[in-house]
Write a structure and sequence with these properties.
Blueprint (H helix, E strand, L loop, with lengths): L2 H4 L15 H6 L2 E3 L2 E4 L26 H9 L4 H13 L2
Antiparallel strand pairs: 1-2
Length: about 90
């Protein structure tokens, strides 16, 4: 056992635990035994991101290294800029 895990053996008193709100119960993951029925939406203190009407899909895309480096050199948001350029090329 490591030093850090030794700190986990603190005796808990149920009075120390905060009450869950109805919103936290609605966002919590739901399991039937070990089977996940509904994943959690957000965290205990923060709701998840709003669901998009047009969610993006993760793909694998091979680009020339100079193209990728050029977009990354423009700073954060390079993936969104690539998406915007592809939309522009398609006229959408």
């Amino acid at each position: 056992m490591t030093e850090n895990s030794a700190n986990l053996n603190v005796g808990w008193d149920d009075d120390d635990l905060p009450e869950w709100t109805d919103d936290q119960f609605r966002r919590a993951a739901l399991y039937d035994g070990k089977k996940l029925i509904r994943p959690a939406d957000g965290t205990l203190t923060k709701p998840g991101r709003p669901k998009s009407e047009n969610p993006k899909k993760q793909i694998t895309l091979r680009l020339d290294s100079v193209v990728l480096e050029g977009f990354k050199a423009m700073g954060p948001g390079w993936q969104s800029r690539i998406n915007a350029e592809l939309r522009k090329a398609l006229g959408i």
